[in-house]
């Protein structure tokens, strides 16, 4: 009888959890899709009704805070975590840092670079929405493009001397009671030509947005620069200190190094 070539006690396949739902999260799952030597699980928050599903395994919905995440990582025998959530989804990042520290697991933050002001820009950078509201009052803004996400409109609804053009991917539920607002449903990417036309046709004097970074929604900043439109830009929230990658290839290198 020939000997069995399989090892008697095979090592389990290393497993990585991607906290995803972002362009970077999908791109990483796609880059890892062909890796037979790795188990890849993507986690989506479950905020979207029919989310795009990444290749590999996936799960949907919150974990139940740090204890729930610790329990999940342990029972699913995960060996590493890559936090690829949106730059403004910081609660998940802090939970991931606490859970990985408790279990001694390696954690990488994969995050697209922030936008930086260019010569000619008129950026007013703020740390939160109350800061943006104060900046709007102080600036004398009259016609504002509000591109802050449909769930973050309420802080602006009391500004009744301003006409708001609210741009969102899907309808706010509910839409706060603005005195003077129009809803524009649109999904990026947006071209420079379209952004220029929108700002000009709507006679926008101020744009309010988050520093999400990335290409898909950056054209509004170039259009604002060209037309002299003021930008009230919310800075990114603080993240826990952890290794960082700004693109998928750096994340792949980190993963190969730590597993
Ligand atoms: N905030 C934004 O501007 C923005 C923009 C575009 C996309 N997103 C995406 O939308 C999701 C939610 O954003 P958020 O600002 O509400 O996040 P958050 O404030 O950081 O997270 C709130 C809670 O949602 C759950 N959660 C978040 N991301 C998750 C994931 N990938 N998998 C499983 N559970 C997740 C966690 O619940 P438990 O505590 O129960 O585990 C977390 O504590 C994120 O995945 C983010 O990437 C956010």
List its traits.
259 residues, alpha/beta, Rossmann fold, six-stranded parallel sheet, 29% helix, elongated, binds NADP nicotinamide-adenine-dinucleotide phosphate, Cobalt-precorrin-6A reductase, oxidoreductase
Q: How would you describe this protein?
A:
- It is a single chain.
- The protein has 259 residues and is of the alpha/beta class.
- It has two domains: 15-112 and 239-258, NAD(P)-binding Rossmann-like Domain (Rossmann fold, 3-Layer(aba) Sandwich), CATH 3.40.50.720; 123-234, Rossmann fold, CATH 3.40.50.720.
- The chain has seven helices and twelve strands.
- The protein has helices at residues 23-31, 65-75, 90-103, 129-139, 192-201, 219-227, 248-258, and strands spanning 15-19, 39-44, 57-60, 80-83, 107-110, 123-126, 143-147, 163-168, 181-185, 206-210, 230-234, 244-245.
- The strands form two sheets. The chain has a six-stranded parallel β-sheet with strand order 3-2-1-4-5-12, sandwiched between helices. A six-stranded parallel β-sheet has the order 6-11-10-7-8-9, sandwiched between helices.
- The radius of gyration is 22 Å and the shape is elongated.
- The two termini are 36 Å apart.
- 30% of the residues are buried.
- The site of NADP nicotinamide-adenine-dinucleotide phosphate (NAP) has 23 residues, from strand 2, helix 2 and helix 3.
């Amino acid at each position: 009888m020939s000997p069995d070539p399989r090892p008697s006690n095979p090592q389990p396949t290393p497993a990585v959890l991607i906290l995803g739902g972002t362009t970077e999260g999908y791109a990483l799952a796609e880059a890892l899709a062909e890796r037979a030597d790795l188990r890849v699980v993507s986690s989506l928050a479950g905020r979207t009704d029919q989310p795009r599903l990444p290749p590999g395994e996936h799960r949907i919905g919150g974990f139940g805070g740090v204890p729930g995440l610790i329990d999940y990582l342990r029972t699913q025998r995960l060996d590493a975590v890559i936090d690829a959530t949106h730059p403004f989804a910081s609660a998940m990042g802090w939970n991931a840092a606490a859970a990985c520290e408790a279990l001694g697991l390696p954690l990488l933050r994969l995050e697209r670079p922030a936008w930086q002001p260019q010569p000619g820009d008129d950026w007013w950078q703020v740390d939160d929405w109350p800061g943006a509201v104060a900046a709007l009052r102080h600036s004398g803004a009259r016609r504002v493009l509000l591109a802050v996400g449909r769930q973050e409109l309420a802080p602006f609804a009391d500004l009744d001397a301003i006409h708001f053009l609210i741009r969102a991917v899907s309808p706010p539920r509910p839409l706060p009671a603005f005195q003077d607002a129009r809803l524009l449903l649109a999904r990026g990417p947006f071209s420079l030509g379209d952004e220029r036309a929108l700002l000009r046709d709507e006679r926008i004097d101020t744009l309010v947005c988050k520093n999400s970074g990335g290409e898909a929604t950056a054209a509004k900043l170039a259009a604002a620069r060209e037309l002299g439109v003021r930008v009230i830009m919310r800075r990114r929230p603080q993240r826990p200190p952890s290794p960082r990658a700004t693109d998928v290839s750096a994340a792949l290198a980190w993963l190969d190094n730590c597993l």
